Amino acid sequence: MRRGLAFLLVLLFFLNPDSGTLIAGSFLTTVSASLKDSLTSASSQHPKPATTSWVAPVSTSWAAGGAMPQLSNFTGSVNDRGICQCSVSLPDTTFPVEKMERLEFTAHYLSQKFEKELSKVKEYVQIISVYEKKLLNLTVRVEFMEKNSISYTELDFELIKIEVKEMHKLVIKLKENFIGSTEIVDQLEVEIRNMTLLVEKLETLDKNNVLSIRKEILALKTKLKECEDSKSELAPLGPPPPAPGSCSHGGVVNISKPSVVQLNWRGFSYKYGAWGRDYSPKHPEKTLYWVAPLNTDGRLLEYYRLYNTLDDLLLYTQAQEYRITYGQGSGITVYNKNMYVNWQNSRNIAKVNLTNNRVEVTQTLPNAAYTNRFSYANVAWQDIDLAVDEHGLWVIYATEASTGNIVISKLNDTSLEVLNTWVTKQYRPSVSNAFMVCGVLYATRTLNTRTEEIFYYYDTNTGREGNLAITMGKMQERVQSINYHPFDQKLYVYNDGYLLDYKLFFLPEAQ
Fold first, then answer.
1. Which residues contact 179 (CB under 8 A, 6 or more apart)?
2. Angle, nearest 10°, between helix axes 183-205 and 97-147?
3. Which residues contact 196 (CB under 8 A, 6 or more apart)?
4. What is the value of pTM for the model shown?
5. C-alpha dist (Å) from residue 169 to 131, 160, 192, 408
6. Which residue would you say has higher pLDDT here, 383 or 90?
Protein backbone atom coordinates (compact mmCIF):
# COMPACT_ATOMS: atom_id res chain seq x y z
CA MET A 1 0.00 0.00 0.00
CA ARG A 2 2.82 2.41 0.87
CA ARG A 3 4.59 1.65 -2.40
CA GLY A 4 1.39 2.31 -4.35
CA LEU A 5 0.90 5.66 -2.62
CA ALA A 6 4.46 6.69 -3.35
CA PHE A 7 4.03 5.80 -6.97
CA LEU A 8 0.85 7.85 -7.19
CA LEU A 9 2.59 10.84 -5.64
CA VAL A 10 5.43 10.67 -8.17
CA LEU A 11 2.95 10.50 -11.03
CA LEU A 12 1.01 13.46 -9.74
CA PHE A 13 4.19 15.48 -9.34
CA PHE A 14 5.25 14.69 -12.91
CA LEU A 15 1.89 15.84 -14.28
CA ASN A 16 2.12 19.19 -12.49
CA PRO A 17 5.64 19.84 -11.16
CA ASP A 18 4.94 23.46 -10.24
CA SER A 19 2.13 22.58 -7.81
CA GLY A 20 3.16 18.99 -7.08
CA THR A 21 3.28 19.57 -3.34
CA LEU A 22 -0.32 20.85 -3.09
CA ILE A 23 -1.73 18.07 -5.29
CA ALA A 24 0.11 15.43 -3.34
CA GLY A 25 -1.09 16.84 -0.02
CA SER A 26 -4.75 17.05 -1.06
CA PHE A 27 -4.68 13.66 -2.66
CA LEU A 28 -3.05 12.10 0.39
CA THR A 29 -5.80 13.53 2.67
CA THR A 30 -8.54 12.08 0.46
CA VAL A 31 -6.91 8.69 0.19
CA SER A 32 -6.20 8.53 3.93
CA ALA A 33 -9.87 9.22 4.74
CA SER A 34 -11.10 6.61 2.31
CA LEU A 35 -8.66 4.05 3.61
CA LYS A 36 -9.64 4.77 7.17
CA ASP A 37 -13.32 4.14 6.40
CA SER A 38 -12.52 1.00 4.54
CA LEU A 39 -10.36 -0.37 7.33
CA THR A 40 -13.04 0.46 9.96
CA SER A 41 -15.65 -1.34 7.91
CA ALA A 42 -13.40 -4.28 7.50
CA SER A 43 -12.76 -4.47 11.27
CA SER A 44 -16.48 -4.47 12.11
CA GLN A 45 -17.12 -7.39 9.80
CA HIS A 46 -14.23 -9.51 11.09
CA PRO A 47 -13.49 -12.38 10.77
CA LYS A 48 -14.97 -12.40 7.26
CA PRO A 49 -12.38 -10.81 4.97
CA ALA A 50 -13.63 -8.56 2.24
CA THR A 51 -12.27 -6.52 -0.62
CA THR A 52 -13.63 -3.02 -0.85
CA SER A 53 -13.32 -0.86 -3.96
CA TRP A 54 -13.13 2.90 -3.91
CA VAL A 55 -13.01 5.65 -6.49
CA ALA A 56 -10.94 8.79 -6.14
CA PRO A 57 -12.67 12.11 -6.45
CA VAL A 58 -12.44 13.69 -9.84
CA SER A 59 -11.32 17.09 -8.58
CA THR A 60 -10.27 18.83 -5.38
CA SER A 61 -10.51 22.44 -4.39
CA TRP A 62 -7.29 24.35 -3.76
CA ALA A 63 -6.62 27.03 -1.25
CA ALA A 64 -5.79 29.48 -4.03
CA GLY A 65 -9.11 28.78 -5.66
CA GLY A 66 -7.62 26.86 -8.58
CA ALA A 67 -8.75 23.46 -9.81
CA MET A 68 -6.63 20.32 -9.95
CA PRO A 69 -5.96 19.13 -13.52
CA GLN A 70 -8.28 16.37 -14.63
CA LEU A 71 -6.84 12.87 -14.23
CA SER A 72 -8.08 9.56 -15.48
CA ASN A 73 -9.91 7.41 -12.91
CA PHE A 74 -7.81 5.42 -10.53
CA THR A 75 -9.09 2.61 -8.32
CA GLY A 76 -7.88 0.99 -5.15
CA SER A 77 -8.73 -2.15 -3.25
CA VAL A 78 -7.69 -3.99 -0.10
CA ASN A 79 -7.11 -7.68 -0.50
CA ASP A 80 -7.71 -10.44 2.06
CA ARG A 81 -4.36 -9.69 3.69
CA GLY A 82 -5.16 -6.01 4.25
CA ILE A 83 -2.81 -4.76 1.54
CA CYS A 84 -4.00 -1.81 -0.53
CA GLN A 85 -3.67 -2.21 -4.32
CA CYS A 86 -4.00 0.85 -6.59
CA SER A 87 -4.05 1.35 -10.36
CA VAL A 88 -3.86 4.62 -12.30
CA SER A 89 -4.52 5.41 -15.96
CA LEU A 90 -2.35 8.31 -17.18
CA PRO A 91 -3.92 10.93 -19.42
CA ASP A 92 -3.47 10.60 -23.20
CA THR A 93 -1.76 14.03 -23.39
CA THR A 94 1.59 12.75 -21.95
CA PHE A 95 4.57 14.56 -23.65
CA PRO A 96 6.59 12.11 -25.93
CA VAL A 97 10.08 12.78 -24.53
CA GLU A 98 11.71 9.67 -26.05
CA LYS A 99 10.37 10.43 -29.51
CA MET A 100 11.65 13.99 -29.20
CA GLU A 101 15.14 12.74 -28.28
CA ARG A 102 15.18 10.31 -31.20
CA LEU A 103 14.08 13.10 -33.54
CA GLU A 104 16.82 15.41 -32.25
CA PHE A 105 19.50 12.67 -32.71
CA THR A 106 18.28 11.95 -36.23
CA ALA A 107 18.41 15.64 -37.14
CA HIS A 108 21.99 15.93 -35.81
CA TYR A 109 23.09 12.80 -37.75
CA LEU A 110 21.52 14.08 -40.97
CA SER A 111 23.22 17.45 -40.51
CA GLN A 112 26.64 15.80 -40.15
CA LYS A 113 26.03 13.57 -43.18
CA PHE A 114 24.96 16.56 -45.24
CA GLU A 115 28.15 18.47 -44.35
CA LYS A 116 30.24 15.42 -45.28
CA GLU A 117 28.51 14.99 -48.64
CA LEU A 118 28.78 18.71 -49.32
CA SER A 119 32.56 18.59 -48.76
CA LYS A 120 32.73 15.61 -51.17
CA VAL A 121 30.87 17.57 -53.82
CA LYS A 122 33.31 20.48 -53.45
CA GLU A 123 36.25 18.08 -53.74
CA TYR A 124 34.76 16.38 -56.81
CA VAL A 125 34.18 19.76 -58.46
CA GLN A 126 37.89 20.56 -58.07
CA ILE A 127 38.91 17.11 -59.37
CA ILE A 128 36.58 17.43 -62.35
CA SER A 129 38.22 20.76 -63.16
CA VAL A 130 41.67 19.15 -63.12
CA TYR A 131 40.61 16.22 -65.27
CA GLU A 132 38.84 18.55 -67.65
CA LYS A 133 42.20 20.21 -68.32
CA LYS A 134 43.86 16.79 -68.70
CA LEU A 135 41.19 15.76 -71.16
CA LEU A 136 41.81 18.88 -73.24
CA ASN A 137 45.54 18.16 -73.16
CA LEU A 138 44.95 14.57 -74.28
CA THR A 139 42.74 15.80 -77.11
CA VAL A 140 45.55 18.06 -78.36
CA ARG A 141 48.06 15.21 -78.13
CA VAL A 142 45.82 12.81 -80.04
CA GLU A 143 45.19 15.41 -82.75
CA PHE A 144 48.93 15.93 -83.06
CA MET A 145 49.50 12.19 -83.37
CA GLU A 146 46.81 11.92 -86.03
CA LYS A 147 48.63 14.52 -88.12
CA ASN A 148 52.11 13.12 -87.45
CA SER A 149 51.47 9.39 -87.23
CA ILE A 150 55.03 8.36 -88.07
CA SER A 151 56.61 10.22 -85.16
CA TYR A 152 54.69 8.75 -82.23
CA THR A 153 55.67 5.68 -80.27
CA GLU A 154 54.01 2.86 -78.37
CA LEU A 155 54.82 4.42 -75.01
CA ASP A 156 52.75 7.48 -75.90
CA PHE A 157 49.74 5.18 -76.23
CA GLU A 158 50.50 3.48 -72.92
CA LEU A 159 50.70 6.80 -71.09
CA ILE A 160 47.47 8.04 -72.68
CA LYS A 161 45.64 4.80 -71.84
CA ILE A 162 46.73 5.03 -68.20
CA GLU A 163 45.48 8.61 -67.92
CA VAL A 164 42.17 7.75 -69.60
CA LYS A 165 41.69 4.79 -67.24
CA GLU A 166 42.28 7.07 -64.24
CA MET A 167 39.65 9.51 -65.50
CA HIS A 168 37.19 6.69 -66.15
CA LYS A 169 37.65 5.37 -62.60
CA LEU A 170 36.97 8.86 -61.23
CA VAL A 171 33.79 9.20 -63.27
CA ILE A 172 32.51 5.87 -61.95
CA LYS A 173 33.27 7.00 -58.39
CA LEU A 174 31.49 10.29 -58.97
CA LYS A 175 28.38 8.54 -60.30
CA GLU A 176 28.26 6.31 -57.23
CA ASN A 177 28.58 9.15 -54.72
CA PHE A 178 27.10 12.15 -56.50
CA ILE A 179 23.57 13.03 -55.35
CA GLY A 180 21.40 14.97 -57.71
CA SER A 181 21.80 15.72 -61.41
CA THR A 182 24.68 13.79 -63.07
CA GLU A 183 24.38 15.37 -66.49
CA ILE A 184 27.92 16.81 -66.44
CA VAL A 185 29.38 13.53 -65.18
CA ASP A 186 27.53 11.56 -67.88
CA GLN A 187 28.86 13.92 -70.54
CA LEU A 188 32.41 13.45 -69.28
CA GLU A 189 31.96 9.68 -69.33
CA VAL A 190 30.85 9.79 -72.97
CA GLU A 191 33.86 11.93 -73.92
CA ILE A 192 36.26 9.57 -72.12
CA ARG A 193 34.68 6.54 -73.84
CA ASN A 194 35.10 8.23 -77.22
CA MET A 195 38.72 9.05 -76.34
CA THR A 196 39.39 5.40 -75.45
CA LEU A 197 37.98 4.16 -78.77
CA LEU A 198 40.03 6.73 -80.68
CA VAL A 199 43.27 5.75 -78.94
CA GLU A 200 42.61 2.05 -79.57
CA LYS A 201 41.96 2.78 -83.23
CA LEU A 202 45.18 4.79 -83.58
CA GLU A 203 47.12 2.13 -81.68
CA THR A 204 45.88 -0.58 -84.04
CA LEU A 205 46.84 1.60 -86.99
CA ASP A 206 50.37 2.00 -85.56
CA LYS A 207 50.89 -1.70 -84.94
CA ASN A 208 49.60 -2.83 -88.30
CA ASN A 209 50.91 -0.16 -90.64
CA VAL A 210 53.07 2.59 -89.20
CA LEU A 211 55.79 0.34 -87.76
CA SER A 212 56.23 -1.37 -91.09
CA ILE A 213 56.23 2.02 -92.81
CA ARG A 214 58.98 3.20 -90.46
CA LYS A 215 61.06 0.15 -91.32
CA GLU A 216 60.54 0.75 -95.02
CA ILE A 217 61.55 4.39 -94.64
CA LEU A 218 64.69 3.33 -92.76
CA ALA A 219 65.55 0.88 -95.55
CA LEU A 220 65.03 3.63 -98.14
CA LYS A 221 67.27 5.97 -96.19
CA THR A 222 69.98 3.32 -96.13
CA LYS A 223 69.73 2.84 -99.88
CA LEU A 224 69.87 6.59 -100.45
CA LYS A 225 72.93 6.78 -98.25
CA GLU A 226 74.58 4.04 -100.29
CA CYS A 227 73.74 5.88 -103.52
CA GLU A 228 75.10 9.11 -102.13
CA ASP A 229 78.32 7.43 -101.05
CA SER A 230 78.82 5.80 -104.41
CA LYS A 231 78.41 9.24 -106.13
CA SER A 232 77.86 7.61 -109.50
CA GLU A 233 77.75 4.25 -111.16
CA LEU A 234 81.28 4.76 -112.49
CA ALA A 235 82.78 5.63 -109.11
CA PRO A 236 84.93 2.84 -107.65
CA LEU A 237 83.37 1.00 -104.72
CA GLY A 238 84.85 1.67 -101.31
CA PRO A 239 86.30 -1.05 -99.12
CA PRO A 240 83.71 -3.30 -97.52
CA PRO A 241 82.97 -2.72 -93.83
CA PRO A 242 84.79 -4.98 -91.39
CA ALA A 243 83.14 -8.25 -90.52
CA PRO A 244 80.94 -8.16 -87.43
CA GLY A 245 83.04 -8.66 -84.32
CA SER A 246 86.24 -8.08 -86.29
CA CYS A 247 88.99 -5.52 -85.62
CA SER A 248 90.32 -5.51 -89.20
CA HIS A 249 90.00 -1.74 -89.57
CA GLY A 250 91.89 1.45 -88.78
CA GLY A 251 89.56 2.78 -86.09
CA VAL A 252 86.39 4.87 -85.97
CA VAL A 253 86.27 7.57 -88.63
CA ASN A 254 82.61 8.62 -88.66
CA ILE A 255 79.21 8.03 -87.09
CA SER A 256 75.66 8.02 -88.43
CA LYS A 257 72.85 10.30 -87.40
CA PRO A 258 70.98 9.12 -84.29
CA SER A 259 68.08 6.74 -84.70
CA VAL A 260 65.46 7.20 -81.99
CA VAL A 261 64.44 3.71 -80.93
CA GLN A 262 62.11 4.50 -78.05
CA LEU A 263 61.55 6.39 -74.82
CA ASN A 264 62.55 4.26 -71.85
CA TRP A 265 59.73 2.13 -70.41
CA ARG A 266 59.55 4.02 -67.08
CA GLY A 267 58.74 7.39 -68.68
CA PHE A 268 59.99 10.92 -69.22
CA SER A 269 61.07 11.50 -65.60
CA TYR A 270 63.72 8.77 -65.70
CA LYS A 271 66.46 10.70 -67.49
CA TYR A 272 69.42 8.70 -66.15
CA GLY A 273 70.22 5.14 -67.13
CA ALA A 274 71.69 2.86 -69.77
CA TRP A 275 70.61 0.40 -72.44
CA GLY A 276 72.12 -1.90 -75.03
CA ARG A 277 72.34 -5.37 -76.48
CA ASP A 278 74.03 -8.33 -74.84
CA TYR A 279 77.21 -9.45 -76.62
CA SER A 280 78.16 -13.12 -76.52
CA PRO A 281 81.26 -13.98 -78.61
CA LYS A 282 80.16 -17.61 -78.97
CA HIS A 283 76.67 -16.65 -80.20
CA PRO A 284 77.00 -13.06 -81.49
CA GLU A 285 73.88 -13.25 -83.63
CA LYS A 286 71.58 -13.87 -80.66
CA THR A 287 69.60 -10.86 -79.47
CA LEU A 288 68.92 -9.85 -75.90
CA TYR A 289 68.17 -6.18 -75.34
CA TRP A 290 68.31 -4.62 -71.88
CA VAL A 291 67.04 -1.29 -70.58
CA ALA A 292 68.09 -0.02 -67.13
CA PRO A 293 66.66 3.38 -66.14
CA LEU A 294 67.93 4.71 -62.82
CA ASN A 295 65.52 6.04 -60.25
CA THR A 296 64.63 9.72 -60.49
CA ASP A 297 67.46 10.55 -58.08
CA GLY A 298 69.86 9.73 -60.93
CA ARG A 299 71.82 7.39 -58.67
CA LEU A 300 70.12 4.10 -57.74
CA LEU A 301 69.57 1.30 -60.26
CA GLU A 302 66.56 -0.61 -58.94
CA TYR A 303 64.66 -2.02 -61.95
CA TYR A 304 65.72 -3.27 -65.35
CA ARG A 305 64.03 -5.10 -68.21
CA LEU A 306 65.14 -7.68 -70.76
CA TYR A 307 63.66 -8.14 -74.26
CA ASN A 308 64.41 -11.07 -76.55
CA THR A 309 63.91 -9.02 -79.73
CA LEU A 310 63.94 -5.39 -80.81
CA ASP A 311 60.25 -5.65 -81.78
CA ASP A 312 59.41 -6.69 -78.21
CA LEU A 313 61.25 -3.62 -76.95
CA LEU A 314 59.43 -1.34 -79.41
CA LEU A 315 56.03 -2.74 -78.43
CA TYR A 316 56.79 -3.27 -74.71
CA THR A 317 55.70 -6.90 -74.92
CA GLN A 318 57.12 -10.10 -73.42
CA ALA A 319 59.44 -8.15 -71.15
CA GLN A 320 61.22 -9.73 -68.21
CA GLU A 321 61.43 -7.23 -65.36
CA TYR A 322 63.80 -7.62 -62.40
CA ARG A 323 64.59 -5.67 -59.26
CA ILE A 324 67.91 -5.17 -57.47
CA THR A 325 68.83 -2.94 -54.51
CA TYR A 326 72.55 -2.28 -54.89
CA GLY A 327 73.24 -0.79 -58.35
CA GLN A 328 74.67 2.73 -58.59
CA GLY A 329 75.15 4.99 -61.59
CA SER A 330 74.62 4.49 -65.30
CA GLY A 331 77.99 2.86 -66.06
CA ILE A 332 76.22 -0.45 -66.68
CA THR A 333 77.05 -3.03 -69.34
CA VAL A 334 76.00 -6.58 -70.28
CA TYR A 335 78.31 -9.34 -71.51
CA ASN A 336 77.61 -13.07 -71.94
CA LYS A 337 74.17 -12.77 -70.23
CA ASN A 338 75.73 -11.13 -67.17
CA MET A 339 75.13 -7.56 -66.08
CA TYR A 340 78.03 -5.63 -64.55
CA VAL A 341 77.25 -2.75 -62.18
CA ASN A 342 78.96 -0.55 -59.62
CA TRP A 343 77.92 -1.58 -56.09
CA GLN A 344 76.33 1.34 -54.27
CA ASN A 345 78.58 3.51 -52.06
CA SER A 346 81.70 1.47 -52.83
CA ARG A 347 84.41 0.83 -55.42
CA ASN A 348 83.13 -2.72 -55.84
CA ILE A 349 81.88 -4.22 -59.10
CA ALA A 350 79.06 -6.79 -59.08
CA LYS A 351 78.42 -9.48 -61.68
CA VAL A 352 74.68 -10.26 -61.93
CA ASN A 353 73.48 -13.41 -63.69
CA LEU A 354 70.58 -12.31 -65.90
CA THR A 355 69.10 -15.81 -65.95
CA ASN A 356 68.20 -15.72 -62.25
CA ASN A 357 68.99 -12.10 -61.21
CA ARG A 358 71.56 -13.29 -58.66
CA VAL A 359 74.91 -11.74 -57.80
CA GLU A 360 77.58 -14.28 -58.68
CA VAL A 361 80.75 -12.28 -57.99
CA THR A 362 81.72 -9.00 -56.33
CA GLN A 363 85.22 -7.59 -56.61
CA THR A 364 86.89 -4.38 -55.44
CA LEU A 365 88.42 -2.17 -58.14
CA PRO A 366 91.76 -1.16 -56.57
CA ASN A 367 92.24 2.56 -55.82
CA ALA A 368 89.18 3.58 -57.85
CA ALA A 369 87.59 6.89 -56.87
CA TYR A 370 83.88 6.60 -56.14
CA THR A 371 80.80 8.40 -54.72
CA ASN A 372 80.87 11.09 -57.39
CA ARG A 373 84.55 11.95 -57.01
CA PHE A 374 85.58 11.98 -60.70
CA SER A 375 82.35 11.32 -62.57
CA TYR A 376 81.74 12.47 -66.14
CA ALA A 377 80.75 16.06 -66.89
CA ASN A 378 77.02 16.67 -66.26
CA VAL A 379 76.52 13.00 -65.31
CA ALA A 380 76.60 12.18 -61.61
CA TRP A 381 77.45 8.84 -59.91
CA GLN A 382 79.24 7.36 -62.93
CA ASP A 383 82.73 7.18 -61.42
CA ILE A 384 83.00 3.53 -62.53
CA ASP A 385 81.98 3.02 -66.17
CA LEU A 386 81.94 -0.56 -67.44
CA ALA A 387 82.32 -1.26 -71.17
CA VAL A 388 82.42 -4.14 -73.66
CA ASP A 389 84.16 -4.50 -77.03
CA GLU A 390 85.62 -7.21 -79.25
CA HIS A 391 88.30 -7.93 -76.62
CA GLY A 392 85.93 -8.40 -73.68
CA LEU A 393 85.15 -6.50 -70.48
CA TRP A 394 86.68 -3.12 -69.54
CA VAL A 395 86.30 -0.51 -66.84
CA ILE A 396 86.87 3.24 -67.28
CA TYR A 397 87.48 5.20 -64.06
CA ALA A 398 89.93 7.53 -62.24
CA THR A 399 92.08 7.40 -59.13
CA GLU A 400 93.58 9.88 -56.71
CA ALA A 401 97.01 8.84 -57.97
CA SER A 402 96.01 9.71 -61.56
CA THR A 403 94.78 13.12 -60.28
CA GLY A 404 91.45 12.53 -61.94
CA ASN A 405 92.77 11.48 -65.35
CA ILE A 406 91.07 8.54 -67.07
CA VAL A 407 92.33 5.08 -66.10
CA ILE A 408 91.49 2.05 -68.28
CA SER A 409 91.59 -1.50 -66.91
CA LYS A 410 90.97 -4.81 -68.66
CA LEU A 411 88.94 -7.17 -66.45
CA ASN A 412 88.50 -10.91 -66.28
CA ASP A 413 84.78 -11.22 -66.94
CA THR A 414 84.52 -14.30 -64.68
CA SER A 415 86.43 -13.24 -61.57
CA LEU A 416 86.42 -9.44 -62.17
CA GLU A 417 90.14 -9.29 -61.40
CA VAL A 418 92.20 -6.57 -63.12
CA LEU A 419 94.35 -8.02 -65.91
CA ASN A 420 96.07 -4.82 -67.08
CA THR A 421 95.82 -1.06 -66.56
CA TRP A 422 96.58 2.08 -68.62
CA VAL A 423 96.66 5.68 -67.38
CA THR A 424 95.79 8.43 -69.89
CA LYS A 425 96.44 12.16 -69.93
CA GLN A 426 92.76 13.06 -70.33
CA TYR A 427 91.01 14.58 -67.30
CA ARG A 428 87.89 12.51 -66.69
CA PRO A 429 85.46 15.22 -65.41
CA SER A 430 85.96 17.14 -68.68
CA VAL A 431 84.63 14.17 -70.67
CA SER A 432 80.87 13.73 -71.17
CA ASN A 433 81.15 9.93 -71.74
CA ALA A 434 83.34 7.19 -73.23
CA PHE A 435 83.27 3.77 -74.91
CA MET A 436 85.67 1.06 -76.09
CA VAL A 437 86.13 -0.34 -79.63
CA CYS A 438 88.80 -2.97 -80.34
CA GLY A 439 90.81 -1.93 -77.27
CA VAL A 440 90.66 1.78 -78.14
CA LEU A 441 89.04 4.28 -75.78
CA TYR A 442 86.92 6.97 -77.44
CA ALA A 443 85.84 9.94 -75.32
CA THR A 444 83.10 12.48 -76.07
CA ARG A 445 82.44 16.05 -75.00
CA THR A 446 79.47 18.41 -75.31
CA LEU A 447 79.50 21.05 -78.03
CA ASN A 448 75.93 22.29 -77.54
CA THR A 449 72.49 21.01 -76.57
CA ARG A 450 72.13 19.02 -79.81
CA THR A 451 75.70 17.99 -80.61
CA GLU A 452 78.43 15.89 -79.01
CA GLU A 453 81.91 15.35 -80.35
CA ILE A 454 84.15 12.29 -80.25
CA PHE A 455 87.28 14.29 -79.56
CA TYR A 456 89.82 11.97 -77.90
CA TYR A 457 91.13 8.42 -78.22
CA TYR A 458 93.60 6.20 -76.38
CA ASP A 459 94.81 2.95 -77.98
CA THR A 460 95.67 0.32 -75.37
CA ASN A 461 97.19 -1.82 -78.14
CA THR A 462 99.93 0.75 -78.90
CA GLY A 463 99.77 3.21 -76.00
CA ARG A 464 99.12 6.08 -78.42
CA GLU A 465 96.59 8.81 -77.76
CA GLY A 466 95.36 11.80 -79.73
CA ASN A 467 92.50 14.05 -80.77
CA LEU A 468 89.55 13.48 -83.14
CA ALA A 469 86.74 15.67 -84.44
CA ILE A 470 83.74 13.42 -85.14
CA THR A 471 80.44 15.22 -84.56
CA MET A 472 77.64 13.23 -83.00
CA GLY A 473 74.03 14.43 -83.02
CA LYS A 474 71.67 13.82 -80.11
CA MET A 475 68.02 14.32 -79.18
CA GLN A 476 68.41 15.83 -75.71
CA GLU A 477 71.06 17.82 -73.90
CA ARG A 478 72.89 15.16 -71.86
CA VAL A 479 74.31 11.80 -72.86
CA GLN A 480 73.97 9.56 -69.82
CA SER A 481 75.71 6.44 -71.11
CA ILE A 482 77.23 4.86 -74.25
CA ASN A 483 77.49 1.11 -74.86
CA TYR A 484 79.15 -0.41 -77.93
CA HIS A 485 78.07 -3.72 -79.49
CA PRO A 486 80.80 -5.48 -81.52
CA PHE A 487 78.49 -7.55 -83.72
CA ASP A 488 76.16 -4.66 -84.63
CA GLN A 489 79.05 -2.19 -84.66
CA LYS A 490 76.60 0.24 -83.14
CA LEU A 491 76.56 2.59 -80.19
CA TYR A 492 73.59 2.31 -77.82
CA VAL A 493 73.12 5.70 -76.17
CA TYR A 494 70.85 6.67 -73.28
CA ASN A 495 70.06 10.35 -73.93
CA ASP A 496 68.03 11.96 -71.10
CA GLY A 497 65.57 9.06 -71.10
CA TYR A 498 65.56 8.39 -74.86
CA LEU A 499 67.07 5.23 -76.34
CA LEU A 500 69.22 6.07 -79.38
CA ASP A 501 71.51 4.02 -81.58
CA TYR A 502 74.28 5.03 -84.01
CA LYS A 503 76.09 3.13 -86.74
CA LEU A 504 79.90 3.43 -86.64
CA PHE A 505 82.06 3.77 -89.75
CA PHE A 506 85.72 2.65 -89.77
CA LEU A 507 88.88 3.44 -91.66
CA PRO A 508 90.18 0.66 -93.89
CA GLU A 509 92.85 -1.45 -92.30
CA ALA A 510 96.35 -0.18 -93.06
CA GLN A 511 98.16 -2.44 -95.54
1. 117
2. 30
3. 161, 164, 168
4. 0.57
5. 12, 14, 11, 54
6. 383
